[in-house]
Amino acid sequence: MEHSPTPADADESPYARLRALIASGDVAPGSWLREAALAERLGVSRTPVREALNRLAAEGIVEISRNKGAQVVSFTPEDVAGLYDVRAGFEPHAALLAVPRLSDDDVERLAELNTAMEAAAAEGDLRTLGALNNEFHGVFVDRCGNRHFAVALQTLMRPAVVAHTFGKYSPEALRRSMLHHAELVAAARARDGEWAEAVMRTHILAARNAAGARPSGVLLP
User: Fold this and answer.
1) Reported pTM
2) 198, exposed or middle or buried, with CB in 10 Å at 0-12, 13-18, 19+?
């Protein structure tokens, strides 16, 4: 998944800010996105808002109708399962490539994010938890060492960020997710890419189950 807008070098473009609003749930699935209202909210003209909406539409996060305007995509359970399948196929490989390349600062940032996620989970602050989770996963993507793979993976993962919600997790599933994050930090400290790859795949498949999504090809009763 991608970054929360908290780091100092975060992208503050209208596109990134609108994407963050959608990913955080501040702008809910199915919401209509009016250019004038968004321009006022973001403090920009309508032109960069229009460009942001077009870019989000190209990524599958927004749908644009010539007659009705732009609307945040609402994902079906089948859509969500498909997005998790994509993540399970590619994100563990990013972890495998990234972990040997992580700097000491990267590892410490992962540990800080993990601690903050545990605190947010304990407080029931799921919105903050989601933003921290996005940044945590983004570290592995950004540090994978292959710019083209990272860009492609970020594009594939962005709809998954929107579809993902900790609100569907049971207490047990949330605890399991936090344990996976802690183990990913341990793998990062050990610079063991294969360990991180295995944990990341387990983590994503567990998230798919926690979100109520069915594996692809499984027929609903």
Assistant:
1) 0.75
2) middle
pLDDT in tens, 129-139: 888 898 899 99
Helices marked H in the chain: 14-24, 35-42, 46-58, 77-98, 104-123, 126-142, 147-163, 171-189, 193-210
Q: Is 105 exposed, middle or buried (0-12, 13-18, 19+ CB in 10 A)?
A: exposed
Return the pLDDT at 220: 35
Evaluate whether 49 touches 14 at the Cβ level (below 8 Å): yes
Report the C-alpha gap between 55 and 183 in whole angstroms: 35
Mean pLDDT, 10 residues at a time, over the chain (221 residues)?
Answer: 39 84 80 93 94 90 89 83 87 96 97 97 88 90 92 76 74 95 98 98 91 56 37
Could you tell me if residue 166 is left (phi over 0), alpha (psi between -120 and 50 degrees) or otherwise beta?
alpha
43 CB-near residues (< 8 Å, 6+ apart): none
Structural contact between residues 135 and 165, judged by C-beta atoms closer than 8 angstroms:
no
> How many angstroms separate the Cα of 44 from the Cα of each of 17, 18, 47, 135?
11, 12, 8, 25
Q: Residue 118 burial by CB count (10 A; 0-12/13-18/19+): exposed, middle or buried?
A: middle
